[in-house]
Design goal:
It contains 6 helices and 7 strands; from the N terminus they run H-E-H-H-H-E-E-E-H-E-H-E-E. By secondary structure, it is an alpha+beta fold. 22% of the residues are buried. The model has no long low-confidence stretch (mean pLDDT 93).
């Protein structure tokens, strides 16, 4: 990775731990480190795969564009959400090794926790991993008397359906994103 990437902050001592139901399914959470940046770029690129199909560029140009977009997003997240749990989602393989399969960025501050980002590799989407993470986050927020909020791309219908099933409600639109909130007033 280029040296221009900002480094992840040190692991927070109070970071979110792997929820029991996720661990039972062979998944774990750990703090991200700079060595994770190459596979994080791939996870990011996979989230834009569908939209890039219609772009008439050569594959190398598409990848260069996505790498640039990832770099900008990474810098933005570190600058604006430095107190976030930047977590790798890993699955334990048949040999007992943890393989990265996604990321979960959760800012746990008052008055509401913020899901900054959640992304899984395509083969794991729709299998309940994101739901289990978000439900555990909701329980933690509720125990502290806090709500949660997030932003979702308006064209990401699958994610929006998941958030609605988990009790998030639309509060307002902001450009191409919808802001959704979960909490005592909306659940």
């Amino acid at each position: 990775m280029p040296q221009s990437f900002a480094s992840f902050p040190k692991e927070r001592a109070d970071r979110m731990r792997t929820p029991a139901l996720l661990a039972e399914r062979g998944f774990s959470l750990r703090a991200l480190v700079d060595d994770d940046l190459p596979w994080l770029r791939d996870v990011y690129a996979s989230t834009r795969q569908e939209e890039m199909v219609a772009v008439p560029w050569p594959a190398a140009a598409k990848r260069a564009f996505l790498d640039q977009q990832f770099a900008l997003q990474h810098a933005h997240y570190l600058q604006h959400y430095a107190d976030t749990d930047f977590l790798a989602i890993e699955r334990i393989d048949a040999r007992g090794r943890a393989q990265p399969v996604g990321r979960y960025y959760l800012q746990r501050v008052a008055p509401d926790h913020l899901i900054v980002d959640i992304a899984l590799l395509p083969e794991l989407r729709g299998q309940g991993v994101g739901r289990l993470l978000i439900e555990a986050s909701q329980r933690d927020a509720h125990a502290l008397g806090r709500g949660m909020h997030l932003h979702v791309l308006q064209h990401n219908r699958a994610a929006r359906r998941l958030y609605e099933r988990l009790g998030f409600v639309l509060t307002h639109a902001a450009g191409s994103y919808d802001h959704m909130r979960w909490g005592a007033a909306s659940s």
